[in-house]
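note to self — DONT lose this again. spent like an hour looking for the file last time. sequence + predicted structure for the chain T wanted, 361 res
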Amino acid sequence: MNNAEVVDALSNYQDAYYPNGIPDSVISLCELQGSTLDLKLSIGFPLGDKKEQFIESIKQSVLSLQAISSVSLTIDETVQPHLTQNNLPSLHRIKNIIAVASGKGGVGKSTVSVNLAIALGQLGARVGILDADIYGPSQSKMLNIAESTRPEFIDDKRFKPIEAYGIQSMSMGYMVTENTPMVWRGPMVSGALMQLLNQCTWNDLDYLIVDMPPGTGDIQLTLAQQVPVAGSVIVTTPQEIALLDAKKGIEMFAKTGIPVLGLVENMALHTCSKCGHQEAIFGEGGGQGLSERYQVPLLGSLPLSPKTREGMDTGMPPVAIDPDGELAETFREMARKVCALLSQRPINQKETTAQTIATDA
């Protein structure tokens, strides 16, 4: 028995987070002493309450090798900064930026963004959310931030993010009232986005979720050219019209060099509150078909739920208000998958070294 056989066994291991096996780069320690294996995996993403289950599953996989009788397994969940499009340098105190986008409005992209961010926080990550929809900001309402709330300014140019439900947030909605229309041309909107991003003093984020406006316009182009994005998530519904626009979103990210980490299918199934009958109001199989066509993972499907709509309208996201509920666990599982897929992309070694030096100093 040798280390190569253990590495080979791990490469054949499969689960929701490693559908293609555990790569060699994850194995930071593999030592055999007789029939005892000392193993350390640097997975680079938070597992939350699924950590023990993951550890036990890996142990059982390795123990299937007859020459091994016991396994000591350590998991390192430390999040690393990953390479971005055109090797743009990571922003100060933000390891990874993940854009949540859709080809059209009305598919629940902002709802997914908020609940995904809160779910990541519940897993143990340090998370922020940036509302990039300058014309129609909605995050302040969804996070139950009072309309009169304004960011605290540190000096004339920098301001603190506003915290809610365990995550940091910034939105144009914190700068203006709900009735103030942003009648701006494209360059002004792009400038406002960069100010919100760069002048906010984000506090050591593992992930910054960027809630994109719908479409493929000025904001998307600015993001692709000037903001170091590590990955993206596309939100769609099973409806054919939504799928047509989701394809444009996938193609846009492909052209700009931003990897699409996965798809989220929203409003997939409705359950009647009276009789319990389930019906696919917007069609079915659309998200799976899009996933197969573009070879992009389907992270999960979300129901069409009045409870979710009411919660977001009143600033009570279901992941935060009912953390033990089925919907909250669905979002946490999608969050794990997103982070796991990102963790398997190339690490930005320069940023890792810079952070290590800064920490040591």
